Amino acid sequence: MLNCQNEFFTIPRLEQIAYLVHGFGTAERKETDFRKSLEGKDFRILHLKQVHSNIVHFVDKIPDENLRGDAVVTALPHLLLVIKTADCLPVLMAEESKRIIAAVHCGWRGTQKKVIQRTIKGMESHYGCQPSSLLVAFGPCIGPDCYEVGEDVRRSYEKAGLASEIFRNHPSREGKYFLDLRKATRLQLLSLGVKKENLYGIDSCSHCCDFLPSYRRDGKSSTRMESFIGMSF
After folding, report:
1. Average pLDDT, the chain
2. d(CA 157, CA 108)
3. What single-letter DSSP state applies at residue 66?
4. What's the pLDDT tens digit per position in 111-124?
5. 69 within 8 A of 55, measured Cβ to Cβ
6. Which of 135, 172, 181, 214 has the smallest count of CB within 10 Å of its CB?
7. What count of other Cβ atoms lies within 10 Å of the Cβ of residue 19?
8. How does DSSP assign 93-120, residue by residue?
9. pLDDT in tens, 16-60
10. Intra-chain end-to-end CA distance of the chain, in Å
């Protein structure tokens, strides 16, 4: 089950962590909403300059500017990590006992470049996080019945050694496939030792749901969904 409040969704398991704030926004949630909901909590907001890469930042002091990349990990309190998406998969992670959090932007390019794997391995090497102890939450993204891709994408995943089962042949268009971003990311997480019971998510398809931004549906007029995670102390 998940909760919806103030134009964003939360994961009940993450809500049980007293020091954690998190959420997956909808099309209605704006930057000003962040500011209002965080009043009195002394948070600094960190947006990534997302470039569909496998660049991961490990932040041990508050940066002077936003960082270029697609994943960020920190042990700092009062730093809100924000990912913007409009069909791509936002992933939030927490190691509850060590107080380590992460936010990851998983589009098809970042997923093919194994950005989630680099994040997990980095959390282990930088902070001693064991994959089996991580709590991982998926936000809404474009679903497996809507995310049509071409042969070039399928081949790039094949070359990267990623499972062919994440693709399904298009029923009527030769050389076209449907890609399951959630499944692609989930399989990578499980292969690294993340426990299946520690995976949580929101299955809503951004392309099908009017209350979610979708670049595939709305083109350049699409807004962005803002997903966030931070520690209040």
Report:
1. 93
2. 9
3. P
4. 999 999 999 999 99
5. yes
6. 172
7. 13
8. EEETTTTEEEEEEE-HHHHHTTHHHHHH
9. 999 999 999 988 776 666 666 665 568 999 999 999 999 999 999
10. 26
Q: Which amino acid, one-letter code, is at 222?
A: S
Nearest to 131 by CA among 193, 45, 41, 50: 193
Q: Is 60 exceeded by the pLDDT of residue 67?
A: yes
Amino acid at position 111, single letter: T
Query: Three-state DSSP class for 138?
Result: strand
Is the pLDDT confidence value at 169 over 80? Answer: yes
Maximum separation of any 2 CA atoms in the chain, in Å: 56
Among 32, 222, 33, 194, CA closest to 102: 194
Q: Which residues contact 92 (CB under 8 A, 6 or more apart)?
A: 11, 14, 22, 24, 83, 101, 102, 103, 104, 136, 137, 139, 227, 228, 229
Cβ atoms of residues 73 and 56 within 8 Å: yes
- Alpha carbon separation from 16 to 151, 212, 223 (Å, rounded): 43, 26, 30
Beta carbons of 225 and 207 less than 8 angstroms apart:
no
Across the strands, what pairs with 49? 68
The domain locations on the chain are 3-145+189-231
**CATH class in words for 3-145+189-231:** alpha beta
CA distances 79 to 39, 62, 112, 123, 147, Å, are 13, 8, 28, 17, 33
